[in-house]
């Protein structure tokens, strides 16, 4: 072990980088992973349109379809960068650069980080967290899981599995939250990252109509929504999605795991209780 002393300095010198630069690079790894995750989300949307038009859609066409069909505003430079990054090469010549594009009629807006990592709440429903993750089955097909987690009890209050990243995935998750009998206490916060789903004006209006105050993580900072990421990590460790071969099998496995997680998975940070038990404990207190 002691023979490794000074090895970092030596390797940095060989690579031609400073030690401070190397440690700064290590520190920024979570932000890089979050940026990569957001790129993958954007890629799935762009690829869906690209393939539906047989590879004949350029960046400007994709942008128009995203805005008009999905209400998603995405910068042209970002679309071109994503297409180049993932090798989506248009089969047709570039659109006329002088042709004016119709501007979006709705503006996506971010929100302040009002939760500010205050996840340890003493009141169920006070802070709800949400996010979307990827799941690959045994055939390599991707499914998307949208979930809502109670920051106080760690319960998964609602979820929805979809084969598409279109806006319906978050609308359906909110619908399930209501159907599952969620009772909102006064001044509840709904916290997410700055993904296009959560900045969408219609989604934001739905939250407002439900009585939520919306909060968002700082850009590229996955730690601001760490408990949600933690649940997705446990889920992927505990189940074998690759054993599934159909979307229905994926949905069933996710549903069964969440039922187990809420009612049977003891957690040290919940005083060794399950999420459901801890909810009862907080309400009794």
TrEMBL record:
Pfam families assigned: HTH_21, rve, rve_2
SUPFAM superfamilies, per database record: Ribonuclease H-like
Residue ranges occupied by any Integrase catalytic domain in the UniProt entry: 120-283
InterPro entries: HTH-like_dom, Integrase_cat-core, RNaseH-like_sf, RNaseH_sf, Transpos_IS3, Transposase_IS3/IS150/IS904
Gene3D superfamilies, alphabetized: Ribonuclease H-like superfamily/Ribonuclease H (3.30.420.10)
Task performed by this protein: Involved in the transposition of the insertion sequence.
The name this protein goes by in its record: Transposase InsO family protein
């Amino acid at each position: 072990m002691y023979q490794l002393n000074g090895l970092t300095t030596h390797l940095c010198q060989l690579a031609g980088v400073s030690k401070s630069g190397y440690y700064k690079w290590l520190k920024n790894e979570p932000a890089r992973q979050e940026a990569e995750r957001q790129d993958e989300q954007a890629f799935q949307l762009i690829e869906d349109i690209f393939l539906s038009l047989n590879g004949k859609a350029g960046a400007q066409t994709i942008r128009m379809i995203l805005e008009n069909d999905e209400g998603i505003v995405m910068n042209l430079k970002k679309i071109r960068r994503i297409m180049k990054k993932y090798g989506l090469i248009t089969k047709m010549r570039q659109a006329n650069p002088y042709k004016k594009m119709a501007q979006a009629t709705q503006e996506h807006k971010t929100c302040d980080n009002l939760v500010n990592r205050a996840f340890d709440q003493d009141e169920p429903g006070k802070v709800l967290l949400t996010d979307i993750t990827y799941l690959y089955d045994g055939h390599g097909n991707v499914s998307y899981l949208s979930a809502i987690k109670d920051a106080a009890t760690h319960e998964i209050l609602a979820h929805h599995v979809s084969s598409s990243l279109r806006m319906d995935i978050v609308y359906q998750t909110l619908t399930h939250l209501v159907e599952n009998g969620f009772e909102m206490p006064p001044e509840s916060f709904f916290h997410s990252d700055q993904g296009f789903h959560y900045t969408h004006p219609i989604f934001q209006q739905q939250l407002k109509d439900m009585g939520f105050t919306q909060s968002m993580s700082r850009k590229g900072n996955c730690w601001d929504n760490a408990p949600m990421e933690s649940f997705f990590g446990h889920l992927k460790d505990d189940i074998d999605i690759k054993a599934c071969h159909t979307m229905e099998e994926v949905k069933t496995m996710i549903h069964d795991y969440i039922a187990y997680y809420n009612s049977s998975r003891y957690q040290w940070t919940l005083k060794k209780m399950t999420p459901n038990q801890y909810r009862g404990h907080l309400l009794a207190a």
